[in-house]
Amino acid sequence: MIPATPDQALARIKAETLIESLDWLREFHGRIVVVKFGGNAMVDEALQLAFAQDMAYLRFVGIRPVVVHGGGPQITAKLAELGIQSEFRAGLRYTDEQTIGVVRDVLRNLVSASLAAMIEESGAQTIVLSGEDDNLFRAEKVKAKTPDGDVDLGLVGEVRTVNPRAVLQALDKGKIPVISTVAPTIHGELLNVNADLAASSLAVALGAEKLMVLTDVAGLYADWPNLDSLVSEIKVGELRALLPKLESGMIPKMQACLAAIDGGVPKAHIIDGRQPHSILLEIFTEAGVGTQVIK
């Protein structure tokens, strides 16, 4: 056999990667994948571009991605710019009447608009939506649970009902929905809702094949900060038992995964958003990245 040149060896690796993806392309063709976009990927331009390219790629190989996002860093920056003091209670943002208007504007007109533009520049059509559009989300006020009792968070809630009509119509037109997570109550009061849990509720309502949640860590650690305790796959029963021991920032993400699986979504994933193209690596390679939650 004639030894391969470095260029030929690289080309062979690329070809093998494409062949490896074939089974996954067959499995997920035409299926809906809900992706919660967040963490460092939201504020690092190179990671934003890689994410946008991933979404466009999924669209063009026949998978139907739906993007849900929050925007904590951008909201904090805008509030500071306007001279509005950010208040946190029990580690969560307190949202008053003045703040909710800023939240709504930043999420839709800054974060959604910017991300949608990057996806379109990567070649796929998008549509910007929020929980207010076409009755997509209805929410209910919640309080933070602490050992010392409930803590009032103001205009903060969780999604209680989902009407996926607008999202399905967009998908049928070949568009990628980019969705921000503010939502009205049944009385029309606008609430800031947790994006992880909103993405989970939407995945269930859409009958999605996967829920994928981007984070700033490599995955779920059973014994954080012991880096050797990284879990590649976990069943829902094991996760429920582990949940009270997790770091506070990971709890809503794992709750979102549990709710998705309980609602009929076959698989949910926690993925390291600091790694470029982590979405493609998780979907199209045998090894994957991050932590997979299964029934």
Please give the CATH architecture. 3-Layer(aba) Sandwich
CATH class: Alpha Beta
β-strand number = 18
Cα gyration radius (Å): 19 Å
Folded structure, characterized:
With 295 residues, the protein is α/β, with parallel strands linked by helices. The chain has a single domain, classed as Carbamate kinase (3-Layer(aba) Sandwich). It is 41% helix and 25% strand. It has 9 helices and 18 strands. The strands form 5 sheets. An 8-stranded mixed sheet has the order 5-10-2-1-13-17-18-16, with helices on both faces. Strand 1, helix 2 and strand 2 form a beta-alpha-beta unit. Helix 2 crosses helix 4. The longest helix has 25 residues. The mean pLDDT is 90.
Q: How is the secondary structure organized here?
A:
Blueprint: H1 6-28, E1 32-37, H2 45-60, E2 64-69, H3 72-81, E3 88-89, E4 92-93, H4 97-121, E5 126-130, E6 137-141, E7 144-146, E8 149-151, E9 156-162, H5 165-172, E10 176-180, E11 182-184, E12 190-193, H6 195-206, E13 210-215, E14 220-221, E15 230-231, E16 233-235, H7 236-242, H8 251-262, E17 267-272, H9 278-284, E18 291-294
Parallel strand pairs: 1-2, 1-13, 2-10, 5-10, 9-12, 13-17, 16-18
Antiparallel strand pairs: 3-4, 6-9, 7-8, 11-12, 14-15, 17-18
Helix pairs in contact: 2-4, 3-4, 6-8
Please give a quick description of this structure.
This protein has 295 residues and is of the alpha/beta class. The protein has nine helices and 18 strands.
Keywords:
alpha/beta; 295 residues; 4-stranded mixed beta sheet; Carbamate kinase; 8-stranded mixed beta sheet
